[in-house]
Structure formats: structure tokens, C-alpha cells
TrEMBL record:
Domain of life per record: Bacteria
Residue ranges of every copy of the EAL domain listed in the record: 1-249
Range of residues in the leader sequence: none
Section of the entire sequence shown: 412 to 660 of 665
Name the record gives this protein: EAL domain-containing protein
Annotated organism of origin: Mesorhizobium retamae
Lineage of the species this protein comes from: Bacteria, Pseudomonadati, Pseudomonadota, Alphaproteobacteria, Hyphomicrobiales
Amino acid sequence: ENVAALLKIAIERELISLVFQPIINMRTGKIEAMEALMRLTMPDGTAVPPSLFIPVAERTGMILELGRWAIRTACRELMSSEHIRTISVNVSPVQLKAPGFAASVAAALGEAGVTGDRLALEITEGLEMEMHSDVLRCISDLKLLGIKVWLDDFGTGFAGLSWLRLIDFDTVKIDRSFLHDCVTPRGRAMFQDIVELLRNRGPKILVEGVESEEQLELLRRLDIDHAQGFHVGRPARAESLRPLFEAPR
Ligand code: G
Ligand code: G
Ligand code: MN
Ligand code: NA
């Protein structure tokens, strides 16, 4: 339909771009990674939100082309700045089920001369994804390449716990709604229970949606590993973020 036609034109005319949102290490306070977020901007400057075009791209299969482009672009960004330790890229279940996905990621890394451990792929638990054996095999292939596998939007779907049982995630991102609920005692208790559950399972914990210093302080008290959100930094063009990364000590 409309959006599908629009998306096709956008791909042809290169109206798709990536912005990056910083992720800090709570212990050092330093930016350690950034999440790549896709943007579609019309020639007249209007932004089409991912919530509109990603589902269409998934339905039409165009996500395969878009996704390959995003991973190649992220790898090139990693190549151009050795100080950026990690870039995370969102991947759709459609990509994980497509034959040859892990090989295409390996090729993108190889072209850029970047090691797999600098790339993280975010898998969302929001979408209900059947425990497809192809998906599990793909994830284990990605891990063999050294690629980090993160679970995104933890707590928003029903599948989160099943995912945790089956996959050894490097990082779990707690959905921002749980942090925002911390304004009530009940919400705060829930948040702490989730943190406790994850801590016992072993992945690094990243909390998204940090919008204030008070929230950042709460995360420090709870000994959270990583934070992301408007208070830490808004999504921005790569050029403006590069200087914020410092040489590793
Ligand atoms: O930045 P923003 O709020 O617009 O992103 C909304 C959502 O769109 C993200 O949470 C993510 O799930 C999805 N998204 C953004 N970029 C990509 C991408 O490159 N690939 C996929 N599959 N999803 C993306
Ligand atoms: O689902 P995913 O985590 O990939 O979504 C990233 C989206 O979250 C982006 O669209 C980004 O703009 C949005 N986002 C990032 N930080 C914040 C924040 O602090 N508050 C809110 N409300 N949204 C945020
Ligand atoms: Mn994400
Ligand atoms: Na998320």
C-alpha cells in the first residue's frame, strides 16, 4: 500500500539514515556504546517514524535490504572510529529467520575489518517470536562470530522469560516503562524484582528511558551496569557523537 510504495522510493533515493543514541557505563560515567536507530526523512524534511515504516518493511520483506544496509553502515562507523567500542543495531525476527543472515553479518564485519565483539544485535521480545529452531541456530552462529546479542524491551511481552531460558544474552535492556513506573512504591518494587531476576541470570543490565538525574541516581544505587535515555543523550548524527568517545585507558 502507500507506506510500502513510499519505502521503496525512500530506499532508492537514499532517504534512510542512521542516528545513534549514547549508552553509558554507570561505573565510569563514560559513553561506551551507542544504539543505531533508523530514520526515514522525506525530501520535504518530514520524518516518518520507525513505528510506521518498520512493520511495513517487515511485512513486505524490505526489512532484509534495510537491515543489511544498517549493519553495513554500523560496521563502517565502527571502522572509522576505534574509540567507539560497541554499536548496537536492532534486528527484526524476519532477519533472524532469513537463511544466511549470520553469514551476511560476518561479511559486513569482514569488509569493514571490524571484530565481531564490537557489534551488538538487539532482539526485541515485544514481538512474539516463536521459538523457531532457525532463529536459535542463527543466534548461536552470531555468538560464534563473537557478536553480542542483546534482549531489547525486556518485560513488554510474554516471551521474555522463555527467551532468557533459551539464550545466553550478553545484555538485557529493561523497557523504559518500568523505570517510569518507579514514581510509585509498587512500581519501584516491581523494577527491583526485575533487576534481581536478571542479576541472578548473569547478563549485563541496561536500563533505557533515563530522563532525569533522579532516575540516574536510582540506577546507581541499584548498581545497574548501563544506562540510555534522553538525560544521557538524545539520538544524534554520528559526527556529533564521535568526539564524546575517549581513548580506552
Ligand atoms: O528511535 P525510535 O523511537 O524512532 O525507534 C523506535 C523503534 O523502531 C525502536 O525501538 C526499534 O525497535 C525500531 N527500530 C529503529 N531502528 C531500527 C532498525 O534499524 N531495525 C529494526 N528492525 N528496528 C528498528
Ligand atoms: O525499542 P528501542 O529501545 O529500540 O527504542 C528506542 C527508542 O526509544 C527510540 O525511538 C528513542 O527515540 C526512544 N527513546 C530513547 N531514549 C528515550 C527516553 O529517555 N525517553 C523516551 N520516552 N524515549 C526514549
Ligand atoms: Mn532497541
Ligand atoms: Na527498547
